[in-house]
Amino acid sequence: MPYRKFGKNDIRINTLKAHPRSEFLIYDSQIYYNNQGRQVGQFQSASATPGNVYMTETGRVNLYEYNIDRLQGSLDAATDNCNDLIYPYLSKDSARLSFLMTGALPDAIYNNEFAYGNKITGSYPQYATIRRAFIAGASGSGDRDIETAKGTCTHNMEYWSIRNLLNLYAVQSRHYLVTSSLGNKDTQDLNLIQIPSIFYGSQIKPGTVSLKWYYTGSLIAELRDSKENGELIQVAGAAYAQTKGSDKVAGVVLYNEGFILLTGSWILTTQTLGVGGAGGASRKARWKFWGAGCRDGIKSTAAGGSADALNKASFKLGFDGVTTTEVITMYAHARRGEVNYSNNPTFLKYNQKQLNFTSSHVFEENPTRLIKNTVSSSHPGYAANFKRQVYISQIAVYDDNKNLIGIATLPNPVLKEEDQDVSFKLKIDM
């Protein structure tokens, strides 16, 4: 089949920019993403664990969507089909490869518990979701010597990994500064919200971040980055009404890295909630306690009496992301008088001799073979006049070296008559 080259205007490359919206609701130590609760299936019923077809807790995204609606150890006796969990594995060999597990796989286990040829396994699904870290005293003392600092340094490494970035973004707002007249983040209580990039893409869109705090279903305060410079300014609540127009800043957003750092310590409500520290001690509602229960170890049972119950508080985080997708559009043309032959065996009349003559020196095909007449007639029992036509079902795309790089398959074959021009529009997201 002959090749046809794309013309100079037949290939176009565009960038599609989108702003997907993400919302998280945190309530009673549970996370809900975009208002999605548990979805039961055939194997993941309400009584199963985790009781969700995505095989994760609510609020978590199943990366790669492995192990959807499966049940460990399940076997259908009638069909002998196994619905057990899939998992990654590799064999121990001289390459010394292993899976990066929690805390890594210690050398002692790798060397002593696995023989060469043994299988080392991991687990699916892998997941992503937001997380809150309450940091009381980011800086600590310890041995500064590089060889011993790992064991003795008591700095909070989650904070110290972004400390230089805070000073870098101070050109946007002085509230980013680690040390300023506004306070010293090295010694303040900090509330660090971590957002995986799968939820926002290349960055969080400035001006779209919203943090809300509810008490018994009523909104008591809200933060927004209304200036689009990373400052989270309180725009609703009692503290806002008392200081309206003063732009009380409770924290900053690192748009490119997916972090929210809250430092606001003013009281938002007179009620006490079980939102303080890792143990859920009773505290007045402050922005540095926002998101309590978001994978930080705080449970409602640790909150004390009914007046301090964590399940009276709920939190909502919303933002838009920025995603860019390169889109290649290609126009494949079947010109008039071209693309009028098919390699499909049914293109020729049935039961015709294929070869005219063959020997050790000659291979000659039958030059009198006829093409099957596929022109339909509106009258029964009457064969319409022959007209050359083909049905196009696939379009193959090759590179400059004639290597096949893609095949576009049409949902239904398209009729191409000899006196027609037909163009196909192919789109590929890179």
Please name the defining characteristics of this protein.
single chain, mainly beta, 3 domains, two-stranded antiparallel sheet, 5 helices, 37% strand
3D structure, described in words:
The chain is mainly beta. The protein has 3 domains: 36-128, no CATH class; 131-324, no CATH class; 326-429, no CATH class. 6% of the residues lie in helices and 37% in strands. The protein has helices at residues 107-113, 149-152, 157-160, 163-168, 238-242, and strands at residues 11-18, 21-27, 30-33, 61-63, 75-76, 81-82, 89-91, 119-121, 126-128, 131-136, 179-180, 183-184, 189-194, 203-204, 210-215, 218-224, 231-237, 249-254, 259-262, 269-276, 281-285, 313-334, 355-358, 363-365, 389-398, 404-417, 422-429. Strands 1, 2, 3, 10, 13, 14, 15, 16, 17, 18, 19, 22 and 27 form a 13-stranded antiparallel sheet that branches. A two-stranded antiparallel sheet has the order 4-9.
